[in-house]
Amino acid sequence: MCGRYLTPDEAAFERHFGVPAPTEYFSSYNVAPSQPAPVVLIDTKGDAAGERRAEMLTWGFKPGWARRSWINARSETVFRSNAFAEAARGRRCLVASAGWYEWQGDATPKQPYVHYAPRFEPLALAGIWTSAVEDGVRRRTFAILTRPAVPEVEWVHDRMPVVLAPQDYAAWLGPDTPRPELERVLAESRPAAIETRPVSTYVNKPAHDDPRCIEPLTAGEADDPEQDPAERDG
Q1: CATH class belonging to 4-214
Q2: pTM for the full model?
Q3: Which tens digit of pLDDT belongs to each residue from 128-162?
Q4: Do the Cβ atoms of 102 and 153 come closer than 8 Å?
Q5: What CA–CA distance (Å, rounded) separates 54 from 19?
Q6: Is the peptide bond before 63 cis (omega within 30 degrees of 0)?
Q7: Which residues contact 207 (CB under 8 A, 6 or more apart)?
């Protein structure tokens, strides 16, 4: 699963994805569900139809009919799911990331780890998005697709986000990409290189959003016993 992640700074975002950052862009060391975060999608209507652009969408996929939201969707079943299939067919996005967190252990609090590309370079996580009116306001929301963890990180958690290769960005975003090609992209996705290190339970609290979230845990460091983030959706 993916229950927390971090995003690149604005310059790194624009350099990696090749689109201007939204005017309201901000980077985060600790994106939590229900918060806005940057995604890249393709316009399907208007003068900019077919062009990539970036938006800040709310993390927590919530169609208009739903009473709940989903932060994750399983890539293995996304095209068959009643909740996600429509979006998987036509509303796909790249979720900008600089790494993600997972928690390990049976004791409370669990030990958090951060997984990241070398030097915290940007990553694109496969996402789907939807749009609905709630309380008179139209909101766009998204979910991150997950897959079985690759061997490098499965010792921490058995699920991980789908990390797309740059050569697959166009296929994932393309409105006319055939489903078999999309399924291939999901099945073959894996980070080119990934590093992992334990971090303090400081990251457990969503209000904590600063470099301390990713600082290596030093021997003998006293952890702050904040509550573990709620696990949901897989």
Answers
A1: alpha beta
A2: 0.92
A3: 999 998 888 889 999 999 999 999 999 999 999 99
A4: yes
A5: 7
A6: no
A7: none
